[in-house]
TrEMBL record:
Residue ranges of the TM segments: none
SUPFAM superfamilies: Aldolase
Record-level Gene Ontology MF annotations: 4-hydroxy-tetrahydrodipicolinate synthase activity
An annotated GO cellular component: cytosol
InterPro entries assigned: Aldolase_TIM, DapA-like, Schiff_base-form_aldolases_CS
Protein name listed in UniProt: Dihydrodipicolinate synthase/N-acetylneuraminate lyase
UniProt keyword Lyase, yes or no: yes
UniProt-listed SMART domains: DHDPS
Keywords: Lyase, Schiff base
Length: 310
């Protein structure tokens, strides 16, 4: 496999029409164009931020087909093909490859808390039908499954498709452990703590911030890759402040709702979230105030990026 994924890969929201009943493909294209204009090396669709659990199979196909055709090879396209039922994950993965996607991002089967052998068999089944790269996704907080470094290494040494992982366990040592256990076969994408992760060997960053600050998401990785740590830290301070405001207002997982609200603030309306997630308007005055605070931070961040580039 010749693919080489590095840098910032934003997990895009899924734009819906104003009534929430349909996928808005034009808004999706607009959001993709913004990522390309911001020099993002790639994007991920149908991830957690993309509300993959809230779309039908027909809508999945529409989202993937629209994205691949519109991108037309300008950047990399990864697709989330996670499902708790192995045959469905296999089918989603095979279909994504047939649509022309560059890679897949896949959580282990969730809810049932599978054993390590069951996780291994799950990925084995997928690798038997696809040849494109797979990015494992370790997020025990949403999946209730934690993939230790030894299991990740075993998967990579067994299947050549598995060469990446989004590590979101918040255990920063995992970055080093995965690289060492896999003998460097697995490249780590930070899901949290991007600066520290890069310092331990990460080469990419999977994040929701690209939905409203794509330039910052891209540039922070450029600075980290070129060892301009202080520049990266100055950007990350703003990202951390934004993240804190969102987490305070939505302690479980507010990135879908706030990412959509903030994209609209930046001139890219994408509709609202689908149930059971809380719509932005239902957050009332508290939500409005938080978005206003974040808007100020985003404006300051824009100025910082100009200063750093001068």
């Amino acid at each position: 496999m010749k693919e080489n994924f590095v840098g910032s890969y934003g997990v895009l929201v899924t734009p819906f029409t104003d009534d929430g009943k349909s996928v808005d493909t034009q808004k999706l294209k607009n959001l993709i164009d913004w990522q390309i204009k911001s020099k993002a090396p790639g994007i991920i669709i149908l991830g957690t931020t993309g509300e993959f659990l809230a779309v039908s199979d027909e809508e999945r196909d529409l989202i993937i087909e629209t994205t691949v055709k519109h991108v037309a090879g300008r950047i990399k396209v990864l697709v989330g093909t996670t499902n708790a039922f192995t045959p469905t994950a296999v089918r989603y993965s095979k279909q994504a490859q047939e649509f022309g996607c560059d890679g897949l991002m896949i959580l282990p089967p969730y809810y049932y808390t599978p054993t390590q052998d069951e996780i291994y068999q799950y990925y084995k089944s997928i690798c038997e039908v696809v040849s494109i790269p797979i990015m494992l996704y370790n997020n025990p907080f949403t999946s209730n499954v934690d993939m230790p470094a030894k299991l990740v290494a075993k998967l990579a040494k067994s299947f050549e498709q598995i060469r990446y992982i989004k590590e979101a366990s918040q255990d920063i040592a995992r970055v080093r452990d995965v690289i060492e256990e896999s003998d460097g076969l697995v490249k780590v994408f930070a899901g949290e703590r991007v600066v520290e992760s890069y310092q331990l060997g990460a080469t990419g960053y999977v994040n929701p911030y690209a939905n409203y600050i794509p330039e910052a998401s891209t540039i922070i990785c450029t600075y980290l890759a070129s060892n301009k740590i202080e520049n990266a830290k100055s950007i990350n301070r703003y990202i951390a402040k934004i993240d804190h405001i969102i987490a305070e207002g939505h302690p479980t997982y507010g990135h879908q709702c706030y990412s959509k609200a903030l994209a609209a603030v930046r001139g890219y309306p994408v509709g609202d979230v689908r149930p059971p997630l809380t719509k932005f308007k239902e957050l009332g005055e508290d939500g409005r105030i938080r978005v206003e605070k974040i808007k100020i931070l985003m404006d300051e961040l824009d100025q910082l990026l100009l200063t750093l580039a001068s």
